[in-house]
Specification:
Elements lengths: L7 E5 L4 H12 L4 E6 L2 H15 L4 E5 L5 H15 L4 E4 L9 H23 L8 E6 L12 H17 L2 H7 L1 E8 L1 E2 L2 H4 L12 H10 L3 E2 L1 H14 L5 E4 L6 E3 L4 H11 L1
Parallel strand pairs: 1-2, 1-4, 2-3, 4-5, 5-6, 6-9, 7-8
Antiparallel strand pairs: 9-10
C-alpha cells in the first residue's frame, strides 16, 4: 500500500507544471484529500474540479494564495484544517527562476520554504498536538552544482537543500514527528524552464544565451516523471534525505559526505 493512501496533502505551486503533476499522481496512490494553492486561480480551480470529478466530490479544494506572504500562507493551512480536519503531507513546491527580480525570487524560493516548514510544524508537529507527518521541500538539481547563467536562482536551491538537511535531523524529528526530505528535479519541461532566458540578470550581455545553451545540454524530463519520483520517496525516503530525478530515469538518493568523513579519507590517502 502506498504511503500516501488515506492521507491529506497540501501542495503549493500546485496549479501547473510539477505541482499539478504531484496532485494527480498522489490521487492515483489513494490520497484522501488535497489542498491546492497557487496564485493562478484559473488553473488551480480547474485542477481541483477535475480531481473532484475523477475521485469524488470534496476530495480537492483550491485556495488562492501568495506563499511569500505569511498571513496568506497560514490562511491556506487553516482552510485545509477546516475542510479535512488533518494534514499529513506538505509539499513546498512553489518557486520561480527569475534572477532579474532576485529580491522577489528570494521571497518565493527561500522565505516560503522556511515559512512553509515552520507552519507545517505548527499544524502537524507532535510538539503542537499534531500527529506528525512528512514535509517535502522542492529544490533543484542546481542546488547540487553551479549554474553561471542563473547564480541567484542556483543559490536559492542550495539554501533549500541546506535548510532541509538541517531540519531533517533526529533532534527535529524527535520534537515534531515530521520527516523532512528534499526533492531535486532536473531539467523539467515547464514554463519555468522555457521562459528562463527572459529573466536573466539583464546587465550582462550574452548571459541569457549562455543559460539557454546550458539548459539545452542537460537531459530533460516531464513533470509526470518527477511526480513519479515524489511517490517513490514518500514510500522509501528517510528523514533528511535528498533525492534527484533527472532525464526521466528513476529517482535516486544523493549522499553528501560529512566534512569529518572527508578529512578521514584525506588522511588515509596520504
Amino acid at each position: 500500500m502506498d504511503a500516501i493512501y488515506g492521507k491529506v496533502a497540501l501542495i503549493t505551486g500546485g496549479a501547473n507544471g510539477i505541482g499539478a503533476a504531484y496532485v494527480k499522481r498522489l490521487f492515483k496512490s489513494g490520497m484522501q484529500g488535497c489542498t491546492i494553492t497557487d496564485i493562478d486561480e484559473q488553473n488551480g480551480s480547474y485542477l481541483a474540479e477535475e480531481m473532484n470529478k475523477c475521485y469524488g466530490r470534496g476530495k480537492a479544494i483550491f485556495v488562492k494564495a501568495d506563499v511569500s506572504d505569511q498571513g496568506c500562507f497560514e490562511g491556506v493551512l487553516k482552510e485545509n484544517m477546516k475542510k479535512f480536519k488533518k494534514l499529513d503531507l506538505l509539499v513546498n513546491n512553489a518557486g520561480i527562476l527569475r534572477d532579474r527580480i532576485w529580491d522577489k525570487m528570494l521571497d518565493t524560493n527561500v522565505s516560503s520554504i522556511v515559512r512553509g516548514s515552520l507552519l507545517g510544524i505548527k499544524y502537524m508537529g507532535r510538539n503542537n498536538g499534531g500527529c506528525g507527518g512528512t514535509i517535502v521541500n522542492t529544490a533543484s538539481i542546481l542546488g547540487l552544482q553551479g549554474m553561471p547563467g542563473a547564480p541567484c536562482y542556483t543559490g536559492t536551491q542550495h539554501f533549500v537543500i541546506g535548510f532541509t538537511r538541517s531540519i531533517g535531523t533526529q533532534f527535529w524529528f524527535d520534537l515534531t514527528g515530521i520527516r523532512f526530505m528534499t526533492i531535486c528535479p532536473g531539467i523539467t519541461m515547464t514554463p519555468m524552464i522555457t521562459d528562463a532566458e527572459k529573466w536573466v540578470l539583464n546587465e550582462f550581455p550574452g548571459l541569457g544565451n549562455h543559460l539557454l545553451q546550458k539548459l539545452r545540454n542537460e537531459p530533460s524530463q516531464t513533470a509526470e516523471d518527477i511526480a513519479e519520483g515524489l511517490n517513490t520517496i514518500l514510500n522509501e525516503g528517510e528523514n533528511g534525505s535528498i533525492w534527484v530525478g533527472e532525464g526521466g530515469t528513476p529517482i535516486y538518493q544523493v549522499i553528501i559526505p560529512k566534512i569529518s568523513d572527508m578529512k578521514t579519507k584525506s588522511c588515509r590517502d596520504l
